Amino acid sequence: MPFLPVRIGQNFLVSQTAHRERKHLALHLYSMGLKELLKIPLSIRPLSRAKNNYIVTYHDISPPGDPSYSKFYSTSPERFQTQVNFFSKYFELVSLGEIVGEKASRRPRLAISFDDGFISVKKTAWPILKAAGAPFTVFVNRVAIETGSLDYGIGYSQLKVAPGVSSPYMSLTDIREMLNAGVDFGSHGASHCILSECTEVELLSEIKGNADFLRANLKVEIPFLAFPFGKKKHYSQQVVASALAAGHKFLFSSNPSHFVTSNDVVKPRISLLEEDERQLSFLFNRTLFKDIDL
Ligand SMILES: [Zn+2]
Q1: Could you tell me which residues come within 8 angstroms of residue 134 by beta carbon, excluding any fewer than 6 positions away?
Q2: Ligand 1 centre and the CA of 10: distance in Å?
Q3: How far is ligand 1, taken at its centre, from the CA of residue 26, in Å?
Q4: What domains does the chain contain, in order, with CATH numbers?
């Protein structure tokens, strides 16, 4: 394919609306590959269309140097604030319930979620999101709530907590307080094991067991389940069937893509860590040019 003299920069991205030019840019970016694309000083403006929906997911929000900070699952509060500002600027921030609904929007929509129920979400992320007027959902595990620990399996280091902190996870009291203030909660399985590797009996306890635990203790519906780990290999048709049988209406993966209104019950989510605005823009724009199915 001949090289296209693509002008990548603020003016080009702001002024270009022609479909043909957009298509050229798409083809060019696609042909360059991800590694090369990362080096481009792309405008930080996402190119998304109004019908596109994005869900982002986080784990822990704590500063580097904090005992609980990990480069594998933490986002610093400062960077989290920058990311929330970015979302507010370019997206309509909606709840998970809204984003899976049918309602049309004039802007691309984005919903924020957190997995595992880290206490830092309550202490650090919540005030930032409250100030931004951003709704969010937290996916929690019975075992983390009851025992203060989760076994993430081989290849995942043990979580560390600050001295004097009994659990890196929220308690039922924390969850009830947030629930009463309008925060949404969903299921993340009972023990955070890989659901596709569970027997039928284990699946029942992991999926229905966790949903029933949350329903009984929180007195709310639990229509949403986020698969632990969340890649395609971590769930199966049997897992999806078990989740629907347990009363869940929508299921969330970690496939870093966007979605438009559809009947698909499994919705993709983009996992975020310490991405700056340019990297965020890349992650959002990439979903428009390349089918990602992880
Ligand atoms: Zn998780």
Answers
A1: 84, 87, 88, 93, 112
A2: 37
A3: 33
A4: 1-43 (no CATH), 52-289 (3.20.20.370)
Ion ligand 1 nearby residues (CB, 5 A) = 115-116, 228
How far, in Å, is the centroid of ligand 1 from the Cα of 156? 11
DSSP string, 154-209: TTSPPP---TT---SB--HHHHHHHHHTT-EEEE--SS---GGG--HHHHIIIIIH
Mark 25-34 as b/e (b = at least 16 C-beta within 10 Å): beebbeeeee
Question: Pairing mode, if any, of strands 224-226 and 250-252?
Answer: parallel
Q: What is the pTM of this model?
A: 0.84
**Ligand 1 centre from 194 Cα, in Å?**
10
Q: How far apart are CA 28 and CA 8, in angstroms?
A: 11
Q: Which of 36-40, 64-68, 94-98, 193-197 has the lowest mean pLDDT?
A: 36-40
> What's the number of CA atoms in the CB half-sphere (13 Å) around residue 197?
11
Place of tokens 């880290």: 118
> For 152-166, how does the pLDDT look when each residue is reduced to its tens digit (9 = 90+)?
876 666 666 666 677
- 3 has a pLDDT exceeding 50: no
Q: Coil, strand or helix: which one is 75? A: strand
For residue 237, give both structure tokens.
């048709």
Tokens of residue 160, six digits = 């560390």
Helix (H, G, I), strand (E, B) or coil at 2: coil
Q: Quote the DSSP letter at residue 101.
A: S
Tell me how far the alpha carbon of residue 97 lies from the centroid of ligand 1, in angstroms: 20
* Angle 257-175-89 from CA coordinates, rounded to 5°: 40
The amino acid sitting at 202 is E
